[in-house]
Structure formats: structure tokens, C-alpha cells
Design goal:
Layout (H helix, E strand, L loop, with lengths): L15 H8 L6 H5 L5 E6 L11 E8 L4 E5 L3 E10 L2 E8 L13 E9 L4 E8 L6 E6 L8 H15 L9 H7 L4 H9 L4 H32 L10 H10 L6 H15 L5 E6 L5 H14 L3 E5 L3 H15 L6 E4 L5 H13 L4 E4 L13 E6 L7 H9 L5 E6 L5 H5 L6 E5 L10 E5 L4 H13 L3 E5 L7 H19 L5 E4 L5 H12 L5 E4 L12 E6 L7 H8 L10 E5 L5 H12 L3 H12 L1 H4 L19 H15 L10 H10 L8
Parallel strand pairs: 5-7, 9-14, 9-15, 10-12, 10-13, 11-12, 13-14, 16-21, 17-19, 17-20, 18-19, 20-21
Antiparallel strand pairs: 1-8, 2-4, 2-6, 3-4, 4-5, 6-7
Bound molecules: adenosine-5'-diphosphate and magnesium ion (MG).
Length: 678
């Protein structure tokens, strides 16, 4: 029977009021109730009297010495007294107002009592008599409840649901998978989660519950993916192959093998009716932009518009300049849309986008405003996509008629996130850097040794290097931060001007001024650029080879890696100097990790462990689902196994096999309809 169809009110003792109360926990039916698992367990071990501490809650095991006596006292109150022999000592057990417990004490039988120990009186005020099977110890389940319902009430409801319906719990995970991983069936699991007999049983139940939760989640993802495949809603972009090949040939460099591979993956998706939802991941400097440009060009040759959204104005402007230059000989019209444009400018550009006068549109999140309409959007590229919230990404996807989506990120996606937050996306990886790049050498110094950094910069400048100097957001107040950047700017001017040209860049500057400074730096008219983190992502000036980061302990690992990635983009040997006085172990650890590896993947994994998923993604809307039993970081291995099994079931019509019948019908209801298989 499908227990999801049996309302909790079917249990005796659940009237309208209690039903309401239990619904406030999100429990509607017997299935919900049986799968409402404890959020933690209190593990109680049988105590020896020698170890018992006054007023502590303990579990004692003994032999009932005499029949219990129930005495009334006060108004409607009563007390049950019984003596038990524990380790050759007679202990008085007292229960208040639970006269029915007297049946549990039979002279000569073994019994276990949980309660509060009174050291002086050598007595225990009982809270609970533990049944036989628990005599070795007891694990107490603790549920999360609210003001509408007590622990005790919930537990007794779960108990009666289990007594009445446990034989009808159907196991959803197919048998062959349970066998393969030595997992419990659903009935055993429900028992082991709520009323474990011992640690081993509870352990296995938990492992099973985690697998089950992850597996069902992954089935949802597989279903979503197959929906994209089945509904032939994606655009067929019949791009001009020769045109694209010629364009690639005209580039000043050859694509790396990895770039060529991912480009083909993307073009294949665009050409098919499959709705592309692809994540392009490649470490900083691996050359993602050119891949995006080729894809956009392909979209344009098939008669559509293509848009690229960047998280900062500086980056949008850079894309506009660079892409514009690449496309100029091709007579493709490109425009830029940002928040700092005047209404007049904005309206004129928006009009060109709407009428299809521009083919390629570069912008910031200004692109997702309601006032922006596309004529025929075929492809959306989201650059540095981890900097956008889930909703912003969705809004852009909803522009136009189901355009293909290419999301790009330099922050390598830790395994956990790849499976969960990005599980519905296909992933392309650029796993090599363009030829000739040298490893960035990273040094960490304490601020008292700052002179060393000045000396180093002097030497590098003499060798015609360009230098970034980055200062963090130190306070909440942008004014103070600015002052900090200005002080450092003054210091560098004092030391190096007028021999070298020093520039200053920060978020408060008007847009045209920012553009001007960036353009001077990229044309080597500025030697040292003192900047706030506005240059953190995307900025590409290949000649820059030194990155100095002040107060580096204030940045997260991923952020430092991004900043460091502004250098090492050309053939010059590049350096990164971290100035930091770490105040604790983790901060110290971060400095050590950074100086020891350039591998963005390793750094992202470490970062995830240290800070949690939301932070690494730079947004609270990390898209990481809210798992109840499993922890996607700690239980990554179970998660990966669940993904593999879910994928296998969705492949090759395996779902149609009879062994997967129960799962199929369960999922069918869960997702309204399962796309592939009916
Ligand atoms: P990211 O992946 O960090 O966005 P970019 O796309 O900004 O990297 O590329 C970094 C730099 O490498 C740019 O200056 C770009 O022109 C250059 N580049 C990209 N592909 C190649 C290549 N195959 N060979 C040489 N240089 C390349
Ligand atoms: Mg980039």
C-alpha cells in the first residue's frame, strides 16, 4: 500500500486538533510520519553505581527485589516504589504518576531503569523503564518538534504508526542496489532510525537513510535532465561551420586541446535540439572567454542573438572591448548594457536589442531587468557564474524562448556541489593552461617584513613588470576602505613615482573613470595598479606579472586564488605576494595551502571544508538542497555512489525493468510524471 495516501488522522487518537499540530511539522500522512527521523540520538550506556554522579541521568540495570507498591498522595497524585538489586546493592526506584508501570516490575526479573540518580539516598527517580531488548543499553531518539507538539506525543504517534503499518512499508530502492551496498530494506531502516536496538543497527539504518535520501534526490536530477532531452524544446542552431572554422583559424593563437574539445561539446549541444544547460569549468587563465566567443558567434550565424552576463562593470567592459575587437572584421553588431548608463543610453540600447539590431549583447545583471527584451535570444553565457544567485541565473534563462545556457566559472566546483547544486548541468572542463604558462610563485610575508615586498617590486618594475596591489574590504564602511586603498596608493607613489606610473581603482569611481584606469593599465600606461577587489574576477591583462595582496588573511581561499589568477596570464614568470598576520590556526593554514599549491581544485575543496558551501558559492542561495539525514560534504562518498546508481537506473530504460517497479511508481507520484518512462 502507498502510505502516502493514508492521512495521519487514520491513527486512533489523532483528531482534528492533533492533526493540525502534526501538520505544522510538515507531516501529512503515515509515510511522512514514519520517515520523520530523529535529528539526533542520545546514547545511554548502562552505568555502574561506582561511576554514578549525583543528579545525573543514568541507566541502571538490576533484578527486581520485591513487588512494586503504588501509593497515593496529594490530589490525584501517586508514587510507585520498587527495590531493585544493582551490583549487590539495593536501590530504591520511584516513578511519579505512572502507576501502570507496575506491570513492568516482576520480582526476580531483570529490568533497566533510566532516571535521575540521588547519591545520598542511593535511589533513582525513574523516567523510563527500558524493555528487555534494550537491557544492554539504550539509544534515545530526539526529534525536532515545535510548540504545537511534544516529543512524547510525536514518539507515541510514530510508535503506533509503526505498529499498525510497518508491514506495509514498501522498499523503494531496488533490491539489487540494497544487496550491492549491504543496506537495509525500508522497514528495517525505519525501525533502526526510530527504535534502534543497538548502535550497529542504528548505524546501518542511518547509512541506508542517507543513501536513500541522496538517491531519490539524484533521481530527481536525472529526471530533470531527461526532461531537457525528451521535450524537444531546445533550439536547433544550424551554425555556419566554415565561418566558425575560419574564425578559429584567424585567432592569434591555436586553441589548446582542451579548449578545442569543450568548444566541440558546446557546439554539438547547440546544434542538437537538446536544450543546452552546460557548465564550463576551467581554472583561472585557462581561456574560457574565447570558447564563449566562438559559441556566441555560432549562435549568431544561425540567426539568433547571443548574450554574455558578467558580475562586474569592469569585467563587462573588458569583454565588450575584447569581443568587439574580435568581431569587428565580421560586421557583427555588439552592444553593452550596464547599470551605470543613463536612461537615454539604456533605452536606445534596449531598443536595438529588442528589434534585433544588435547580435551580441554584453552586460552586467542589468541584462535581467524587466525592461530588457530580446528579439531572438539563442545563447546565454553567464561568466563567473558563481557570483550570481540562483535566481539571477534563472531570470536570464527565462529571457527569450528557452535559449541554450553556458555558465562559466573559474572556481572549480568541489565534487559535492557538482553533484548537488549543479547536478542538472552537463559539465565541460578545460583542464590545461595555454602553452608557455609558468607556475605562479607565491610567497607569504608578515607585515613587519613589508620592506622585502618593496624591494621585490622595485626589482620587478626595473624588469618592466606590471604590478597589481590589492587591498581588502576591511570595514563595512566603504569610505574607510577607500581611505585604506588611498593610503597604500600614496605610499607606492612616494616610493616609485614619478619613475613609474601608479594608478588607483575602486568601486566608488564613476564608470568612465574606472574604464579609463583599466584601459591605461592594459595598455601599459600604468605600472602599478592599486585596487580594491573590483579586479577580483575575470580581469585579463596578460602583461601583469606581480600580484601583491594586503591583509591576505581577510580573504577566503577561493578569493585569494581568483586574485592570484590575475597574473600568470602571459609568458612572463609571475609572482604573488601575500602580506598577512594570521591570527589563528585556520588563517595560518590558508597561507600555507596557498603557498604550496596552484591547483584551484584542491583549494576549492579545502575552502568548502573550512567555510561551507554557501560561502564558497558566494551566495546564500547556493542552490545546495536541504538534506535531512545526509550531509553532502561529510557523506560525499555515499552521495557519489547514489549518483552513479541513479544515473544507471535512468539509462537504457532500466527503469522499465520489473525490479524497479516500486521505485518507478514512487517517483512517478513524486515528480507528477516521470518523463521518460510512461
Ligand atoms: P579565463 O578562463 O580565466 O576567463 P581568459 O579567457 O581571460 O581566461 O584567458 C586568459 C588569457 O589567455 C587571455 O589573455 C587570452 O587571450 C589568452 N588565451 C586564451 N586561450 C589561449 C590559447 N589557446 N593560447 C594562448 N593564449 C590564450
Ligand atoms: Mg574569465
Amino acid at each position: 500500500m502507498d502510505l502516502r495516501t493514508v492521512p495521519v488522522s487514520a491513527l486512533s487518537g489523532v483528531g482534528a486538533k492533533r492533526f493540525e499540530a502534526i501538520r505544522s511539522l510538515g507531516i501529512e500522512n503515515i509515510y511522512d510520519l514514519l520517515f520523520y527521523f530523529p535529528f539526533r540520538y542520545e546514547d545511554i550506556e548502562v552505568k555502574s553505581l561506582d561511576d554514578a554522579i549525583d543528579q545525573e541521568k543514568i541507566l541502571l540495570k538490576g533484578i527486581v527485589a520485591s513487588d512494586p507498591v503504588v501509593a497515593r498522595f496529594g490530589y490525584k497524585k501517586n508514587r510507585l516504589n520498587v527495590r531493585i538489586i544493582v551490583e549487590n546493592e539495593s536501590v530504591m526506584v520511584t516513578f511519579f504518576n505512572q502507576p501502570w508501570l507496575k506491570d513492568k516490575f516482576v520480582t526476580g526479573d531483570e529490568v533497566a531503569v533510566y532516571g535521575k540518580w540521588n547519591q545520598n539516598r542511593r535511589a533513582i527517580t525513574g523516567m523510563k523503564v527500558i524493555g528487555d531488548e534494550h537491557a544492554e543499553g539504550s539509544i534515545d531518539s530526539v526529534y525536532s518538534v515545535n510548540k504545537n507538539i511534544h516529543q512524547k506525543t510525536l514518539i507515541s504517534l510514530i510508535k503506533s504508526a509503526y505498529e499498525e503499518y510497518s508491514d506495509q512499508i514498501e522498499t523503494i530502492i531496488p533490491e539489487h542496489i540494497l544487496e550491492k551496498y549491504h543496506l537495509m530494506n525500508d522497514k528495517e531502516m525505519v525501525q533502526g532510525m526510530h527504535f534502534p536496538k543497538n548502535d550497529e543497527q542504528n548505524e546501518l539504518a542511518r547509512r541506508t537513510a542517507k543513501f536513500r535520501e541522496f538517491f531519490l534526490f539524484e533521481c530527481g536530477i536525472q529526471n530533470m535532465k531527461s526532461k531537457d532531452q525528451i521535450n524537444q524544446v531546445g533550439l536547433l542552431e544550424n551554425y555556419d561551420k566554415k565561418y566558425i572554422d575560419d574564425f578559429i583559424d584567424s585567432l592569434p593563437f591555436d586553441l589548446t586541446t582542451a579548449q578545442a574539445r569543450v568548444t566541440q561539446e558546446i557546439l554539438d549541444d547547440m546544434e542538437s535540439s537538446y536544450h543546452m544547460n552546460r557548465l564550463l569549468q576551467g581554472d583561472v587563465g585557462s581561456g574560457k572567454t574565447i570558447v564563449a566567443v566562438i559559441a556566441m558567434l555560432a549562435s549568431v550565424t544561425s540567426g539568433y542573438q547571443a548574450a554574455i552576463m558578467a558580475p562586474t562593470e569592469i569585467l563587462a567592459q573588458q569583454h565588450f572591448n575584447k569581443i568587439g575587437k574580435l568581431l569587428a572584421p565580421l560586421k557583427i553588431r555588439i552592444s553593452i548594457l550596464t547599470g551605470s548608463q543613463t536612461k537615454k543610453e539604456h533605452d536606445a540600447i534596449a531598443d536595438n536589442i529588442k528589434t534585433g539590431k544588435t547580435n551580441v549583447i554584453v552586460g552586467t545583471h542589468a541584462l535581467i531587468q524587466d525592461s530588457v527584451e530580446f528579439k531572438d535570444l539563442g545563447l546565454i553565457v553567464i561568466d563567473e557564474q558563481h557570483r550570481f544567485g540562483v535566481n539571477q541565473r534563472k531570470s536570464l534563462r527565462e529571457k527569450g524562448n528557452n535559449p541554450d545556457v553556458l555558465a562559466m566559472t573559474a572556481t572549480p566546483i568541489p565534487r559535492t556541489l557538482a553533484i548537488t547544486a549543479y547536478g542538472d548541468m552537463d559539465v565541460s572542463r578545460i583542464d590545461e593552461l595555454p602553452a608557455g604558462r609558468k607556475k605562479i610563485e607565491t610567497y607569504w610575508i608578515r607585515s613587519q617584513k613589508i620592506e622585502q615586498m618593496y624591494r621585490f617590486v622595485t626589482k620587478e618594475l626595473a624588469d618592466s613588470a606590471q604590478v597589481y596591489v590589492v587591498t581588502p574590504l576591511i570595514s563595512e564602511s566603504e569610505k574607510i576602505d577607500l581611505k585604506n586603498a588611498e593610503l597604500i596608493y600614496d605610499k607606492f607613489s612616494e616610493l616609485f613615482a614619478p619613475k613609474y606610473r601608479i594608478g588607483l581603482l575602486h568601486g566608488q569611481m564613476p564608470n568612465d573613470q574606472k574604464e579609463d584606469v583599466m584601459s591605461q593599465f592594459s595598455h601599459q600606461k600604468i605600472d602599478v595598479l592599486v585596487s580594491t577587489t573590483v579586479i577580483e574576477v575575470g580581469v585579463d591583462v596578460p602583461n601583469a606579472s606581480v600580484m601583491v595582496i594586503y591583509d591576505a588573511n581577510r580573504f577566503g581561499l577561493s578569493q585569494l586564488h581568483q586574485l592570484r589568477g590575475r597574473v600568470g596570464r602571459g609568458e612572463k614568470q609571475s609572482y604573488c605576494i601575500l602580506i598577512a598576520d594570521p591570527k589563528n590556526e585556520t588563517a595560518l593554514e590558508r597561507m600555507k595551502i596557498l603557498t604550496s599549491t596552484n591547483d584551484g581544485f584542491v583549494l576549492a575543496e579545502e575552502d568548502l571544508k573550512m567555510r561551507g558551501a554557501g560561502d564558497v558559492l558566494g551566495s546564500r542561495q547556493s542552490g545546495l538542497p536541504d538534506f535531512k539525514v545526509g550531509d553532502p560534504i561529510a557523506d560525499i562518498n555515499i552521495l557519489e555512489t547514489a549518483q552513479i546508481e541513479a544515473e544507471a537506473i535512468f539509462k537504457d530504460d532500466a527503469m522499465a525493468k520489473s525490479e524497479n517497479k516500486v521505485l518507478k511508481s514512487f517517483l512517478n507520484d513524486e515528480f507528477e510524471q516521470l518523463n521518460n518512462f510512461d
